Amino acid sequence: MTGILVLAGTPIGDISDAPPRLATELTGADVVAAEDTRRLRRLTQSLGVQPTGRIVSYFEGNEAARTPELVEALVGGARVLLVTDAGMPSVSDPGYRLVAAAVEKDIKVTAVPGPSAVLTALALSGLPVDRFCFEGFLPRKAGERLSRLREVAEERRTLVYFEAPHRLDDTLAAMAEVFGAQRRAAVCRELTKTYEEVKRGPLGELAAWAAEGVRGEITVVVEGAPEKAEELDAAELVRRVRVREEAGERRKEAIAAVAAEAGIPKRDVFDAVVAAKNAERTGP
Question: The whole model's pTM is what?
Answer without folding.
Answer: 0.78
